[in-house]
Design a protein that fits this description.
Elements (H helix, E strand, L loop, with lengths): L1 E4 L6 H14 L4 E3 L17 H14 L2 E6 L2 H9 L4 E4 L7 H11 L5 E5 L6 H13 L5 E5 L17 H9 L4 E4 L1 H5 L5 H10 L5 E4 L17 H10 L10 H41 L7 H17 L4 H19 L1
Helix pairs in contact: 1-2, 1-9, 3-4, 4-5, 10-12, 11-12
The structure holds phosphoenolpyruvate and manganese (II) ion (MN).
The site of manganese (II) ion has 4 residues, from loops.
């Protein structure tokens, strides 16, 4: 599934030109544009409201592309229904507020809408699932989750962290919900959109929502991350599309063999951890008997350094081993306590 279009609808010409070029070059499943924009600062461009809905309706009718926009309250639902929209998305800020999500769900009840639900900006999977459940409960079953990254709390290369483990966990919890990726809001910069898109495809995501503007430099919102329709075409052409599975018999056999090896090693890992915790518990008893503090920071520093160094020497990621040992150490302390 491909959803493309500008961050915001800015003029009839801008949306129409962008939509026409996109239709010609990549024929997206949906043309997107923000009509009501939830902006961080009150003086930023907040969208044009109802008059832009009429432009979107014209695009839907004349170019024969479904249109989609962001909604945040009951009034928005009423308006998009009036202009013939059959799909909407709930934005990352709105999804974090269950009152708003419920209001939108109640207003959309009984309507013929496809609902796209972005993740909240904070990495709270329950909140994301909760929003999906609210729509399911009122009987709107055609729901797609949109992974758009999580607020990083610090300066990072990407505007938002993909935290792929969160959409993966969503797929585990709700296997019937399709997940697509919004690489534009993860990247925040056109330079990184292709790599994020490919990563999403490698994770078997069902599609992409990418921002596209006929003149990105002139965009009134998110100008750094919008691609021209031609750049969208080049991006799509460059992606290596992966299938969810293969029916090649040899592939299945090889995969099965390798997975058996993994299973065997995983149980060994768990058994070794069990032995390790038995020893740290003994150490706990020893410390207790001599009234010695549990945390021995010098020992912990040495463990962390030596294990990370060794990992690096044998070609494993130092950071990954450090993270793993931090978890193990946390658990040892908890048990010793
Ligand atoms: C958008 O899609 O333009 C948008 C505002 O997205 P998000 O809610 O993910 O920030
Ligand atoms: Mn945007």
């Amino acid at each position: 599934m491909l959803i493309c279009g500008p961050c915001s609808a800015e003029s009839e010409e801008q949306v129409y030109t962008t939509a026409r070029q996109l239709k010609e070059l990549v024929a997206p499943d949906y043309f997107r544009a923000g009509i009501w924009k939830p902006r961080t600062h009150p003086d930023s461009f907040e969208g044009l409201g109802e008059k832009a809905l009429a432009w979107m309706q014209r695009i839907q009718n004349e170019l024969n592309i479904h249109v989609i926009t962001e909604v945040a309250n009951a009034n928005h639902i009423e308006k998009i229904a009036k202009y013939g929209f059959k799909a909407f998305w709930i934005g990352a800020r709105t999804v974090a507020n269950p009152f708003s999500v419920q209001e939108v769900a109640n207003a959309a009840k009984g309507g013929d809408f496809k609902v796209f639900i972005k993740n909240p900006t904070n990495p709270d999977i329950d909140l994301w699932c909760g929003a999906i459940e609210r729509f399911r409960k009122i009987g709107l079953g055609d729901i797609i989750a949109v992974s758009r990254g999580f607020y990083p709390f610090s300066e990072t290369k990407l505007r938002n962290l993909p935290c792929w483990e969160i959409p993966i966990e969503l797929a585990r919890r709700m296997p019937d919900i399709k997940i697509i990726c919004d690489p534009s809001h993860i990247a925040g910069d056109t330079r990184y959109i292709a790599e994020i898109s490919q990563q999403a495809i490698n994770l078997n995501m069902a599609g992409l929502m990418i921002e596209s503007h006929c003149c990105p430099q002139q965009a009134l919102s998110d100008s750094n991350q919008q691609l021209t329709p031609l750049e969208i075409k080049n991006l799509i052409d460059s992606l290596k599309i992966k299938s969810p599975a293969s029916d090649d018999h040899n592939y299945e056999m090889e995969l099965e063999t390798l997975r058996n090896k993994i299973d065997f090693l995983d149980y060994q890992l768990i058994d070794i951890l069990k032995q390790r915790f038995a020893i740290t518990n003994e150490i706990g008893e020893l410390k207790k008997s001599r009234n010695v503090a549990i945390l021995q920071i010098d020992r912990w520093k040495k463990v962390l350094e030596s294990r990370s160094e060794y990992a690096e020497k044998i070609g494993l990621s130092k950071e990954m081993i450090a993270t793993l040992f931090s978890e193990i150490h946390k658990e040892s302390i908890r048990e010793q306590e």
